[in-house]
Amino acid sequence: MGRFSIVFMGTPEFAVSVINKLYKEEIEIKAIVTAPDKPAGRGQKLNQSDVKKFAIDNKLSILQPTNLKDASFIENLKELNADLFVVVAFRMLPESVWSIPTLGTVNLHASLLPNYRGAAPINWAIINGETESGVTTFFIEKEIDTGRIIDQIKVQIGENETAGELYNRLMQKGADLMYGTVQKIFNGKATSVEQSELNLIDIKPAPKIFRDNCKIDFSLSVAQVHDFCRGLSPSPTAWCKLYNHKKDEIKIYKLFETRKTTISCSCSQSIVRAANGILFPCNDYYILVTEIKPEGKRKMTFKEFLAGNTVENMSLFGNPE
Questions:
Q1: CATH code, 211-317
Q2: How many of the other CB atoms lie within 10 Å of CB of 314?
Q3: CA gap 197, 10 in Å, rounded
Q4: Is the pTM of this model over 0.90?
Q5: Of 155, 196, 205, 234, whose Cβ has the fewest other Cβ atoms within 10 Å?
Q6: Total Cβ atoms within 10 A of residue 67
Q7: Are strands 277-281 and 314-317 parallel, antiparallel or unpaired?
Q8: Angle 180-206-9 (CA atoms, 0-180°, nearest 5)?
Q9: How far apart are CA 31 and CA 18, in angstroms?
Q10: Class of 5-198 in CATH
Q11: What is the mean pLDDT of each run of 10 residues along the chain (321 residues)?
């Protein structure tokens, strides 16, 4: 086998695990393509992507196009003469980019495609109460996340596992999977299957999640509320409003860590102090909250919260009865 090369495209930490694996395995990397630096924080200091920081540390060539259809950017890619493009957690590529390399362009997606196509596959898998997830490598085609599947790795989702915890596990699994996929392609041993041939019914989407979508509906069952909270933890985080009767004020509270209980609820909307957390009423049972962030304050354990708050004066606000 002759020596093949890649161009890698990615931006966040999830992509770093993959490029780090490929780099350590001595895959030839012609260039890194990542997002332009963006101003962040109070000082509006330019912030580099995690992938750019990796590229700098390892003295790799960097491209940061603002427009992926820009003629000079596309010409630069062609001049690199890479055999394969590898894409992880990047923007949607135009055909003028993904069609360049002779061996194609492969992507890594954090779900078992064709389920959970879209921007937030890890979050939605947990929110929907799935017990299984995984990572998929596939060839990029015109429609997002619809290309021919090359490889998959399945993992079980724990009953109390959060999106952040699953993210960390899939990040490592994804690095191993992509390396294996690249090796197969370079060796001419990669096979792929059309997603339509899998004959799945009711394919579930994974659209981008916005803050307004993160409000908790406590009229649902404790299992549904628990899945919703852990599916949004630690980010963008499930939230609710609590009314403090004594202070006559309404504030937003973010819930980070929860557990299901079999403690039956009354019709009351009040929250309850417990020895091992704070009980919030759902449609059937209470849900136990062990990590919470009051509006304008830091995230804290239930013990820290209870030390400074009298929950007997607090109840859910704006929740369906």
A1: 3.10.25.10
A2: 22
A3: 29
A4: yes
A5: 196
A6: 10
A7: unpaired
A8: 40
A9: 14
A10: alpha beta
A11: 87 97 97 92 82 98 97 97 97 96 98 96 98 98 94 98 98 98 97 89 93 96 98 97 94 98 88 96 97 97 94 84 45
